[in-house]
Specification:
With 505 residues, this protein is of the alpha/beta class. 42% of the residues lie in helices and 12% in strands. The chain has 2 domains: 398 residues, Amidase signature (AS) domain (Amidase signature (AS) enzymes); 86 residues, no CATH class. The protein is built from 17 helices and 11 strands. The protein has an 11-stranded mixed β-sheet with strand order 1-3-2-4-6-5-10-11-9-7-8, with helices on both faces. The two termini are 18 Å apart. The protein binds glutamine (GLN).
Length: 505
């Protein structure tokens, strides 16, 4: 490769999705060149980062060529025309290996596209491949992937968050300008926080779950991940919308998040600091950057007040009853009969034995742990004491949010209690792993929306810190307005964006 080609490629992989879309539409560059630059980057760095489980180079080039043909023909272009995207491996893509990070689905090629996949294709995005994740989206570090962990581009000895660590690391390593994640308890926001990227959990019901391999159906929600707020809004808008094939899909109005991202006006807004999501248990540098971000908001003319959400203290406990209960039911379909792996099918075993052998070989420890927990919590005699109680707590948390949003427009907190921890550090201590999501889980239980965006590096370890913004259901536009305002004030004060500081791989 010539030197000018190398610098052009570096410029391409560091570009925002919106700049790439504009350059492609204006014929300054072809989607094929943009796609090739990202495929080259994946080839260079993904052996170390392991953000992708499957790279569909051929398919991506074909999609790029199709966009370039449209550009040449002068056709009207959809919003993400020609822009490369990474797709979390929990969404089905027709003919492309889809594993949800589990060995039990190894070799399965779905016969259909998830609605999210269809929407990406319809928006002109070029799907580069499937990103790594904790098995069935269970985890906060991507170490529970059946295919080996993803590493954090800021420090390869550290975790990129989970379960969508692959989607977040692909952004921070400049392997893709946009990626799709899912957030059941924080799996878009916590990875965004520890990789210095942006991620949104949309309001439950706004992104279709059709073709999303279910973990906990009442909590799961697909959503956008990007390197800045405006890009994330573009992808959000492309993914959201009513879908007849998902009975929980919202059929009403959707806010314009792209317009909101450009608005950046928090003057006179009321912002609530959640008392229960701060203080003890939060790393000093995380609290420091959080306090500074709050100061940015007041400097921009917002009014900041403290708000108490007393039932948030019980969110983690309720979540770890509701999630395993739903997961134990959802994962029952992986029986060795219909999809992927089958063990012991040698004529010497009964069907039940084949199911048992397949599950034993195909599920990892965390999946087994949650299936057992969920089966226990749902068993007769315990149902009311565990699952029933947890559902009541869920209602109380939703009421805390409702009461808070009577007083304020949005709530804020740190996204995660700490910066990225070392690989292996929490692997033997499930509860320590679960605690990463204390601040993100309440939103999933109540069904409203939240965003994480980078607000600086913690002084003690030089690693990214995230700010969580939470808004009422179907007020996702507020996240982008407030997030855009904070981002632009911080980037102005730093003189560059945070992600440009990620150490070169
Ligand atoms: N870390 C949480 C869990 O393990 C969140 C997972 C998710 O959002 N998919 O359940």
């Amino acid at each position: 490769m010539s030197e000018s080609a190398i610098s052009l490629n570096t410029e391409l992989i560091k570009s925002s999705a919106s700049a790439l879309a504009a350059a492609i539409a204006h014929r300054e560059i072809s989607s094929r060149e943009v796609t090739d630059a990202h495929l080259d980057r994946i080839e260079q760095v993904d052996e170390q980062v392991h953000a992708f489980l499957h790279v569909d180079a051929e398919g991506a080039r074909a999609q790029a060529d199709a966009v370039d043909a449209k550009v040449a023909a002068g056709d009207e272009l959809p919003p993400l025309a020609g822009v490369p995207v990474g797709l979390k491996d929990v969404f089905t893509q027709r003919g492309i290996p889809t594993t949800a990070g589990s060995r039990i689905l190894e070799g399965w090629r779905p016969p259909y596209d998830a609605t999210v996949t269809t929407k990406l294709k319809g928006s002109g995005a070029v799907i580069l491949g499937k990103t790594n994740m904790d098995e069935f989206a269970m985890g906060s570090s991507t170490e529970h992937s059946g295919y080996g962990p993803t590493r954090n581009p800021w420090d390869l000895d550290r975790i990129p968050g989970g379960s969508g660590g692959g989607s977040a690391a692909a952004l921070a390593a400049f392997e893709a300008p946009l990626t799709v994640g899912t957030d059941t308890g924080g799996s878009i926001r916590q990875p965004a926080s520890v990789t210095g990227t942006v991620g949104t959990k949309p309001t439950y019901g706004s992104v279709s779950r059709f073709g999303l391999i279910a973990l906990a159906s009442s909590l799961d929600q697909g959503g956008p991940c990007g390197r800045n707020v405006a890009d994330t809004a573009l992808l959000h808008q492309a993914l959201a919308g009513h879908d007849e094939r998902d009975s929980t899909s919202w059929a009403g109005e959707y806010p314009d998040v792209v317009a909101a991202a450009a608005k950046r006006d928090v003057k006179g807004m009321k912002i609530g600091l959640v008392k229960e999501l701060s203080g003890e248990g939060y790393q000093a540098g995380v609290s420091q950057r959080f306090d500074e971000a709050v100061k940015v908001l007041t400097d921009l003319g917002a009014e900041v007040v403290e708000v108490s959400c007393p039932h948030f203290d019980y969110a983690l406990a309720a979540y770890y009853l509701i999630l395993p209960s739903e997961a134990s039911s959802n994962l029952a379909r992986f029986d060795g009969m219909r999809f992927g792996l089958r063990e012991g099918d040698d004529g010497n075993h009964t069907v039940e034995q084949v199911m048992g052998l397949t599950r034993d070989a195909g599920f990892g420890d965390e999946a087994k742990r949650r299936i057992i927990l969920g089966t226990y919590a749902l068993s007769s005699g315990y149902y009311d004491a565990y699952y029933g109680q947890a559902q009541k707590v869920r209602t109380l948390i939703a009421q805390d949010f409702a009461a808070a949003f009577d007083q304020v427009d949005v709530l804020v907190s740190p996204t995660a209690p700490t910066t990225a921890f070392k690989l292996g550090e929490k692997l033997d201590d499930p509860v320590a792993m679960y605690l990463n999501d204390v601040a993100t889980i309440p939103v999933n239980l109540a069904g409203n929306c939240a965003m994480s965006l980078p607000i600086g590096l913690a002084p003690e370890d030089g690693l990214p810190v995230g700010l969580q913004i939470m808004a009422p259901s179907f007020a996702d536009d507020r996240l982008y307005n407030v997030g855009g305002a904070v981002e632009s004030a911080l980037v102005d004060s730093w003189g560059h964006d945070l992600i440009s500081e990620v150490p070169a791989l």
